Amino acid sequence: MNNMQKKKEILDAFAFRHATKQFDPDRKISDEDFQFILETGRLSPSSVGFEAWKFLVVQNEELRMKIREVAFGGQGQLPTASHLVLLLARKDVRYDSEYVEYIYKNIKGLSDEAFKSIPAVYKEFQENDIRILENERALIDWSSKQTYIPLANMMTAAAQIGIDSCPMEGYNKEKVTAILKKAGVLDEEVYDLSVMVAFGYRASEPKHQQARRPIDEVVEWVH
Ligand SMILES: Cc1cc2nc3c(=O)[nH]c(=O)nc-3n(C[C@H](O)[C@H](O)[C@H](O)COP(=O)(O)O)c2cc1C
After folding, report:
1. How confident is the model at residue 58 (pLDDT cuts 50, 70, 90)?
2. CA distance 77 to 202
3. For residue 148, which atom of ligand 1 is closest to its CA?
4. Is residue 217 part of a domain?
C-alpha cells in the first residue's frame, strides 16, 4: 500500500467513527479483534512512561445495567455494546511510590543503582514543573489525562477494522464508583474511574454528518 492509499484508509476510518448511540445487540466483536483493540491501548504512550491506567472490561450484564442507572450518557450504549471498557486512572504515580519504582525496575529494566537518581528528578518535575503534588486531585487528573490517549487510540484502531465505539463521560462518577466497589472490581486505594468506552457494531447509520470547525479556525501557525 502506498502512502496515499494509507492516508485515505486512515481518514476513511476517522470519517467512519462516530459516537455510536445504539449498537446491534446481536453482533459481537471477535476475541481476536477485541484483543487487537486492547493492544493499541496497551501500546499507547504516557507521560514518563508511567502507564497510569488499567482497562476494566465489563461484560457482566447485571453490572452494566446497574451502571446504566446512573449513566445518562450511556442509555442506549451500555445494554447493546459488544464490549464495555472502563478506563481507570492510577492514583499511585507519585515520584516516590512503589509503582513508579516497579515501572523503572521491572518494565524499563533499570538496575537498583541506575534507579537511585530517578525519584529526585521526578520530584522536581511533579512538584515544581507541572505542579501535580499540590493536592490528590491534581495527581489523579494527571493520570486521568493519560487515559484519554489509549481511549483515542482504541477508538481509531477499532474504526480502522470497521468497529464502532462511543466514549462516555456522561455518568455520576461517585455512584458508578460505589457500584464498582460493591461489585469488588475497583480498588479505590489505587484506581479512580476516568472514562468509559463502548465498542460494537452500529444498529443504524448515524443521523448526522460529523460536524467540525474548519481547519484554519482550529490551527494557528507560528513561523
Ligand atoms: C471524553 C468524551 C466523553 C463523551 N461522553 C459521551 C457520553 O457520555 N454519551 C454520548 O452519547 N456521547 C459522549 N461523547 C461523544 C461526543 O458527544 C461526540 O464525540 C461529539 O459530539 C462528536 O461527535 P462524533 O464523535 O459522532 O463525531 C463523548 C465524547 C468524548 C470524547
Report:
1. very high
2. 10
3. 1
4. no
* 173 within ligand 1 shell (Cβ under 6 A): no
| Side chain identity, residue 56 | L
- Using alpha carbons, select from 120, 21, 99, 117 the residue that is nearest to residue 54: 99
The residue type found at 197 is V
Residue 111 belongs to a domain = no
Q: What per-residue confidence (pLDDT) applies to 209?
A: 86
Predicted confidence (pLDDT) per residue in 98-112, tens digit: 999 999 999 999 999
Task: Tally Cβ neighbours within 10 Å of residue 223.
Answer: 2
User: 169 in ligand 1 pocket by Cβ < 6 Å?
Assistant: yes
pTM: 0.97
The number of distinct structural domains making up the chain is 1
First to last CA, the chain: 34
- For residue 29, what is the domain's CATH number? 3.40.109.10
Q: Domain for residue 40, yes or no?
A: yes
pLDDT at 213 over 90: yes
* Structural domain includes residue 184: yes
Q: Is 168 in the pocket of ligand 1 (CB under 6 A)?
A: yes
Domain of residue 54, residue span:
13-91+150-204
- Ligand 1, pocket-test mutation among 145, 156, 168, most atoms within 8 A of CB: 168
Atom of ligand 1 nearest to the CA of 21: 11
CA 73 – CA 209 distance, rounded (Å) = 20
Arithmetic mean of pLDDT, 150-169: 98
